[in-house]
Amino acid sequence: MRVFSRREALVTTAAISAAAAAARSSPENMPMAHWRPHTISRLIVGGNPVSGTSHFSPKLDQEMRDYFTAANIKKMLADCESAGINTWQSRADHHIMRMLNEYRQEGGRIQWIAQSASEYADFRHNLAEMVPLKPIGVYHHGSMTDSFWSQGKIDQVHDRLKAVRQIGSQVGLGTHRPEVIDYVESKGWDLDFYMTCVCRIQGRTREEAEQVAGYKLEGNAGDFFWDADREKMLERVRKTAKPCLIFKVYGASRNCATAESKLAALQLAFRYAKPNDAVVIGMFPKYQEQVRENSQLVKQAIREQNS
What we know:
eight-stranded parallel sheet, globular
């Protein structure tokens, strides 16, 4: 494992401080959504790549883990702030929380939307560990939400959201299934936002996924992405009055072959998105710059939708 020199650490710290200053001096760089009392960029940087989760292949998972050293995590967050991205969505585990704390100690100002970490046996203990980092929003992990739904235990999630309300953050619910939102809205749950996946991963058995695909799948059936799922969830996003954070817009890199394919995916999302909705995009800038490219593409998609 590479050990970073003191000089490299100082350079990274200086870059973080410079990015924070640049972000403060140009608040209009990125279209914003209002989550009173907070304002979030309509492009949010996602946390899956930092955690080594590609939803593409084990090889890419490992490559992400190797790339995202502490220095590279902090550099990406600093680049995001420079580009006007003021919010990071990521899981509330020890690794992520330590990185966020370190980044802020070095001058970073990025806001945090926390995903509950499903490995915690005690949900409330996980919440207590988040509190010192002042997340502006906390949402119940979508895969866990959908698991409770499949088991007929979704009302247990409602009890967990009540605990989130008690820590003073915006309360969110993650899901990959539009019917979960249908149910929650019909029951009038007390929450502030949804984390909505446009790809129904982990919601089908292998047999169901292969029937939809029309061919035999290789690898994890939960990572099967079907384009027709996108508009089903996006219709639900448009229907709810609650703000939505729309993720898997690029299909976990499946729609990233060209800038044109990425723009088309964003155009689809913003065709349905409400003014206070945002997209969440995980970035892996090992081979090419992604932060500014995604920022420009999001601004273009919003501009075209508003014209």
